[in-house]
């Protein structure tokens, strides 16, 4: 039984939640009016009953005083009691011996109570009592008169209360029906912007047209909701545009190495089928061609890896920790030397603690060193410096190359951007974009300037951290969002 009793409220809750907002507002409005009418009826009934009872008691006291005056003048046993006229008040005289006198033709009253008898015997002056034990209820007032007492009674009549209750019931029903209609009308009018908003959202979902903003109408919460949905549509438009640009740029960047790779492979296949591979391609040319194929495959692999990192945004999946940035810089320099043995890296680092993701930061420093290594002459090392500056950690990577043209500086960190002077060099144009992405996620800044040696100086500034403090939260970036804070 307790299990069934517990399931009933849950069923009612589920049923209520399945109703539409318009239906719930209608039910709430009708229920509120019904409760208000019921409370008003109860209060009004009590007030009316109190007022009628006060009026009856006042009338009984007045009539009793008149009859008591006659009884004191003539004596309770001799006072004249006119015949009962058929309606109105009921009277009775109580003698000292307990006997009673009533007018001729008057309906019988309830027996004299013990308290009323004590009034007749002089124990008290008066008594107001109600008697509802019979079919008809009475209000009886007893007043001491001479050596007895007089009683005046009033038959309790509930018809005014009943009529009032019936009227209130009709009014309540009309109010409930009217309240339900008004509640439904108000709900329909109030939810009209929501209906139009829903229709617009459904249209956007069906047509996939993210460029159609929802008209801004209504006020208050409705306006804020519409603005929020329009902001969401704008964010979706930006995301889709970023995805499209990523796909277009990737296709463009992949086209050149794939074309070169395809032409070289087709040349090798054609010569091999003719049996002229050895004669047409001397050993030196064949070696150069194979080196070109290897370089193109390496470039494609690097581009694919960088595209995967950029599109997946995997720096947001790495845990954050408080770390010594000097260890990151040293590890990145070691990886750069292992990848390109000819590169020379000169380190000048001091211990600076930051809160961040180790692999992401190492990737950013490695990309800076790789970029500098492409430009730095063979006899000039890539200089990497790390120092504390105020409340920040500053990493500087510079080379002795030709530097960056002033026209190219604003776009150095753009995705897939490559200056005209860098077209002949290997690379995808994604390395510095990933650097910007990592730095932005860590709340830092990336900048470019001219090195004292005439080359490029790339600087990263990150917020320093207390080694004993817990790791600070790092922003989560979405795919393609490689310039979040710029």
Keywords:
486 residues; alpha+beta; five-stranded antiparallel β-sheet; five-stranded mixed β-sheet; 10 helices; 12 strands; rod-shaped; disordered C terminus
> Which range best describes the helical content: under 10%, 10-25%, 25-40%, 40-55%, 55-70% or over 70%?
40-55%
Q: What order do the strands of the largest sheet run in, or round the barrel if closed?
A: 2-1-5-4-3
Q: Class by helix and strand content?
A: alpha+beta
Order of helices and strands: HHEEHEEEHHHHEHEEHEEHEE
How many helix segments?
10
Strand content: 5-15%
**Overall mean confidence score, pLDDT:** 76
**Gyration radius, in Å:** 50 Å
Distance between the termini: 65 Å
Main pleated-sheet profile:
5 strands, antiparallel
Q: Which residues form runs of ≥5 with pLDDT under 50?
A: 419-428, 476-486
Query: What best-fitting shape do the alpha-carbon axes yield?
Result: rod-shaped
**Total E-strand runs:** 12
Structural commentary:
The chain is an alpha+beta fold. 53% of the residues lie in helices and 15% in strands. It has ten helices and twelve strands. Strands 2-1-5-4-3 form a five-stranded antiparallel sheet, with helices on both faces. It has a five-stranded mixed sheet with strand order 7-9-10-12-11. Strand 1 and strand 2 (100-101) form a beta hairpin.
